[in-house]
Automatic annotation (TrEMBL), chains A, B:
Signal peptide coordinates: 1-18
GO terms of biological process kind: homoserine metabolic process; methionine biosynthetic process
EC number(s) on file: 2.3.1.-
Start and end residues of each AB hydrolase-1 domain: 140-239
Major location category of this protein: cytoplasm
Domain of life: Bacteria
Gene3D superfamilies: 1.10.1740.110, alpha/beta hydrolase
Coiled coil regions in record: none
Protein name, UniProt field: Probable acyltransferase
Active-site residues (renumbered): S172, D335, H368
Keyword Nucleus: no
Length: 392, 392
């Protein structure tokens, strides 16, 4: 079936082929955004993109919420010669599981987006200019939460006249936003797909996320977040991204990617300043990503994630009370970041309140990253789920 | 049965009771130690202690090899009013699984022992004075390996006239030393117990261990290891110990220890510089340990662990070829550091060469730390194993 789609695409004229897959980043701006913790941000701008076409009654809209180190580029290419398409291109597009012939799919860059220095990302965060001072906010930027990311998305949807979502779907930190949509604005969300997700951050996961922030704060160039215009805290940022990458992976994948590994390598055996090849490989991956990333944004995304509790209420049960959406949970086997027990806890909490919820495990050797790289393994499950009747 | 032992102890006279449990740190010194990588250390001293009495033909000796952040204090107390006994006191002592009425049990501080500043630890490492310069070695100390730890222990045993070990038993990094004994000096080791162990460091684990070292190198006080006499790299060291502690634990334990955790705590919600209570708890645990720890020693122990391959040969199979000991493997369920697949790999490699090997899982909610805190769960397994016939 997938082969058939590829063949079909190959036989289309180049113009049509390009039209089907090319996407464009757009900009959404707001004045005077109030954060969940009660602070004001005078000006906000975020990037967004869309795939497919909105129907007349605006009833075919699917929102994709992105993961920690992702952005709104969920599918397609900006240019025909882009090396890679958006991260979920395997399931978003014409004829794919999230079929852009049927649905109008859109996605929005979060506040404090990790890749603040990627020219294709538009975001507002500690690296942005504070209009009150003319200088970057740094740590004066308010703490923002998953609810704030949702509220920016909601403002964009309002501006487009969209008041119902056929579905909201996201992986990892995107799953938190998706669940927050269904919890905070239940009358607007018909279906929810939480991929490699959680209902709340337990003590273990809050502590685990803190290790991602620690190396940045140790870097002498970090300077309490006031490094703009000076030396960047790249060493700390790289160590942080190396840890995030490892946490997102699994032994099978790392060992497979390093088939020549030998514990007794000569360089680390003879010199404490040198490292094993697998360390150089992992740090190299991290260093190549660090140039696009803002270190303070990483701290703010860690914090937004740590503060997550569905519905932002007193308990998980209270936060989920309003949920009306059908729910599909897609945890990944051997996920080291949002361990499958977190999805299990969410499922039990939903079942206890007689919500409509099902789940399926995403298989594969990549741990947490199965939710991105192996998403095609559950494509048909998502397709079928999206065709189920509207519960609202 | 354990109650019977306790009752028995309580009925002994105070003098006997003290004699049974009090231990003393001793010192062993060597000149001109040659490391595995071919370098020389002019003077070495390490601490050691023992429990029980050696028999006449010196055939009742059991060596305990310690874990990454441990030392030779495996059992007993230095003073009757010590807050806690040695780490494996639950299984080492009169009438216990490793019965000091029957065996002479000894344990030795490793080179570059983590707790270099604990007055009860005697070790030689980067914090020691280099006799050539009169100053601490820092990074001029040679890279040392698990084989070097074993060779120091072997020199001590030689000095005591001990040429056979009834058993060598160790958890975690201690399991690597125990296996190295059986691989490098097979004619000396009758039985081997590898607790929460591994046969070699795969690429995944080498990379995972590197994250323990990274925060220290980022601390501006670290100064490429030349911090002696100046500001100590305590912030980096604390972050490192916090990560090690979390890696050694499991969600069940951390969540159980933080029953009042709530993701939406006020302090981290309103101030990016503040943290969740669970983070303060974990960092507090780490900070309280940091005062005894030397940061460079931590880097050297990470490296010694990363370089591990049983027998230090070309392959695991070649390294294990000589093993004659009976082998008992005791992995912990849900161990996040030395994941159970590493024990499985070792078991398969031993079976392939028709070695005598069995295994049993240590249950409990503490992940890797089950190998320390829940060791009594496999006490009877160890006791029975030690009674099996000598295979040499």
């Amino acid at each position: 079936m997938r082969h058939a789609v590829i063949l079909l695409l190959l036989t289309l004229s180049p113009a049509l082929w390009a039209e089907a897959l090319l996407v464009e980043k757009q900009r959404f701006e707001m004045d005077n955004f109030q954060t969940f913790n009660g602070q004001q941000i005078r000006k906000i701008q975020v990037g967004w993109e869309s795939y497919g076409k909105m129907n007349k009654d605006k009833s075919n809209v699917i929102l994709i919420t992105h993961y920690f180190s992702g952005n709104s580029h969920a599918a397609g290419r900006y240019h025909p010669d882009d090396a890679a398409p958006g991260y979920w291109d395997a399931i978003i597009g014409p004829g794919k599981a999230i079929d852009t012939n049927e649905y109008y799919v859109l996605s929005v860059d979060t506040l404090a987006n990790l890749s603040a220095h990627d020219p294709k990302v538009i975001t507002t965060g500690p690296a942005s200019t504070n209009p009150d001072t003319g200088k970057p906010y740094g740590l004066d930027f308010p703490v923002v939460t998953i609810r704030d990311f949702v509220n920016v998305q909601k403002a964009l949807l309002d501006s487009l006249g969209i008041d119902k979502l056929h579905a909201v779907i996201g992986p990892s930190m995107g799953s938190l936003q998706a669940l927050e949509w269904a919890s905070a604005y239940p009358e607007r969300v018909e279906r929810l797909v939480s991929v490699i997700g959680a209902g709340r951050m337990d003590a273990w996961t809050v502590a685990a996320l803190e290790h991602w922030a620690a190396p940045i704060r140790l870097d002498p160039n970090w300077q309490q977040g006031r490094y703009y215009g000076g030396q960047l805290p790249l060493a700390g940022l790289t160590a942080s991204l190396a840890l995030i990458t490892q946490d997102a992976l699994h032994p099978d994948f790392v060992n497979g990617a390093n088939p020549d590994h030998h514990p007794l390598e000569q360089a680390p055996l003879t010199d404490i300043r040198q490292s094993h090849q697998v360390v150089n490989w992992l740090w190299g991956l991290a260093a190549s990503r660090a140039r696009m990333v803002d270190a303070n944004h990483l701290l703010y995304l860690v914090r937004a994630s740590q503060l997550y509790l569905a519905g932002m209420d007193k308990t998980l049960e209270q936060g989920l009370r309003g949920v009306r959406a059908r729910v599909l949970l897609l945890p990944a086997v051997e996920d080291q970041i949002l361990m499958p027990y977190l999805t299990e806890e969410l499922q039990q909490a939903l079942l206890k309140q007689q919500k409509s919820v099902t789940h399926k495990n995403i298989p594969g050797p990549m741990g947490h990253l199965n939710g991105l790289r192996n998403i095609d393994q559950v494509g048909e499950t998502i397709r079928t789920f999206l065709q189920q009747g509207n519960p609202l």
